[in-house]
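Retro notes
What went well: the complex prediction finally ran end to end.
Inputs used:
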Amino acid sequence: MDLDKLRETAAEVAGRDDVKYLIGWKKGSYGYRIAPAFVEDVEAAAELIFSPLCTANLATYLTLVEKLPLPRGQEPDDRKVALMVKGCDSRAVAQLLAEKGIHRDEVIVIGCPCPGMVDPDLLAEKYPETEEPAELKWSDDGFVIVRDGEETAVPRDELLAEKCRLCRYPNPVVSDIMLDDPVETWEPAEDEGVTEIEEKEVDGRWAYWQEQFSNCIRCYSCRNVCPLCYCQDCILDRLNPTWVNRSVNFSENTAFNIARAFHLAGRCIECGECERVCPANIPLGKLNRKLAREIRDKYGFEPGLEPEGEPFQASYKPDDPEDFIL
Amino acid sequence: MSANYEPNIVAFLCNWCSYAGADLAGTSRVQYPSNVQIIRVMCTGRVNPLYVVNALQQGADGVLVSGCHPGDCHYMEGNYFARRRLGMLKDLLEFAGVDPRRFHMSWVSASEGHKWKEVVEKTVEDAREAGPFEGFRRRQIDW
């Protein structure tokens, strides 16, 4: 993608009177790090980038903003927020719109067609991080790592993130401004991680998740980073009634993870952020993707495609499958 | 598994159909297993899927949710929502390694005392086969 065009457009949008700030990606302080950039003035738009390292889903900042009660006599700031989105992020925006978590006239969506992101862990493992910030670029058949002016070409399959291998919508589904021509979609890979667990016996699955969930330290990063976890009153924080106890043990961890996955059933847009931020490396995405797959197969529903559509759990069809009912 | 193991079943019944159906089973002297602890709710649409998880955590070996037949809901559409939600929960629990025989859902109307008996028998039988569900009990320290 042409970075000059991106910065030009961003500067133009951030300079508008009715825009509060623009959220994009910028280079982090070291290695492969990327930081979110909140561009309030035109000059700051010059540091924006879009590279294969921009895995973070910025749509989460739309609902993360703290809305304090206004002092008397003060007018609310109803300027818009501009947001740069990849394909998956745009589905988060569409899902938020469908749930009326945000309003369409509150956001300006700047679409970045995404040829696929790298897996930051995999990248750091194969090409160790240095103190110097490194850059990544897309080439015709993969990625190019640029460090100290030295270019290393890497084939696409070696570093492509799991969520991108499974991606079906690399082009933004909602956008006001598109920064580039749509990329060519690729054949999504078979979701082996989920199939592998499905094929296990019940006890094997229980043992597998027992091993994974007992690592959980209940930091709730997965909830905090999720663009669709934005309840003001989250059941995990609530004490009366206590839905999930706070003690860190296997029973509560399992209940927490089931609750988290269930609350995203029919809503998860598979951006893979929960998995990326998890300090215990629990494959949370598998739970989400399993539910998404079931819902796609059984109910023919996919979240985050229709901003005007009805949310999955708030609607029904009279002929929903009921083969599980006695 | 001990020889005299009796499963604990928690059943969430909707006030208008299944609870009345269970009542009918009682008044018509239909014999059914006594392992079921009935919790009356106003509609299956009000059964939070976390109730099921919580019941399993607190000592249930099986959970049953029962409501009106589709189209018969006292609140017009509550059981349609429940069907979607709990169907997904069943998939999720199964994926997480909970035996699918531990969670059942059924439609029992107010006139189906005999169906209620069959449903309970099936639920208890399944829970008995699946055995005591020790792995998910609350306050386990030895993991």
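What we learned: The interface with chain A takes residues 49-50, 53-54, 57, 70-71, 77, 80-81, 83-85, 87-100, 104-107, 119, 122-123, 135-141, 143 of chain B (CB under 8 Å).
What to try next: split runs per interface for comparison.
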